[in-house]
Write a structure and sequence with these properties.
Strand content: under 5%
Structural class: mainly alpha
Radius of gyration: 20 Å
CATH class: Mainly Alpha
Number of strands: 2
Number of domains: 1
Strand order of the largest sheet: 1-2
CATH topology: Four Helix Bundle (Hemerythrin (Met), subunit A)
Largest sheet: 2 strands, antiparallel
Length: 166
């Protein structure tokens, strides 16, 4: 069977699975707090009291803790959704245009590790502004996005030179 992006195909369940996990975390804390839109500000849309039965919390202390977890879960899911698609597109373009398989697998492994570290060791950690969050942010930006975009530019540079010489 012929596939255009075999390495990306192999990694897609990991990215989809982790995104699904992040999505389920948001859903869990939405049910616990009753916040269907928003995450604890005055602009929140709440579900009717008891809409989720016993899963909805009623203890103010537990609700406060769940609000904090909801805010982190929303940002974790949002951040993944904001950063991963561009990275995957850049890596896919490299793979489609003949990048060595080891480069593609390395880039995908690095991206996945960076995004998981960003959430699990960063946003969910005690020190959200260092460690995993910093690693995830910098790794996604520089070796992955910048690295693959420069690699793609090098692959397509001849077409740009031809265009500019017309």
């Amino acid at each position: 069977m012929f596939t255009i992006t075999p390495a990306l195909l192999v990694w897609s369940p990991f990215f989809a699975g982790y995104y699904t996990y992040l999505n389920m975390q948001v859903a869990k804390y939405r049910v616990q707090t009753g916040y269907m839109i928003g995450d604890s500000s005055e602009h929140v849309v709440k579900a009717p009291s008891g809409a989720f039965g016993k899963k909805q919390l009623d203890d103010p202390e537990k609700i406060k803790a769940a609000e904090k977890h909801l805010h982190i879960a929303v940002r974790a899911q949002g951040n993944f959704a904001e950063n991963v698609p561009l990275s995957l597109i850049l890596i896919a373009l490299s793979e489609i245009n003949g990048a060595p398989t080891w480069v593609i697998h390395s880039g995908l492994a690095l991206l996945f590790t960076a995004r998981v570290a960003h959430v699990e060791l960063g946003l969910k950690g005690k020190h959200a502004f260092q460690g995993g969050r910093l690693f995830g942010f910098l790794t996604t930006l520089f070796p992955v996005n910048l690295g693959f975009s420069m690699y793609n530019f090098a692959l397509g540079a001849d077409s740009l030179r031809t265009f500019l010489s017309l």
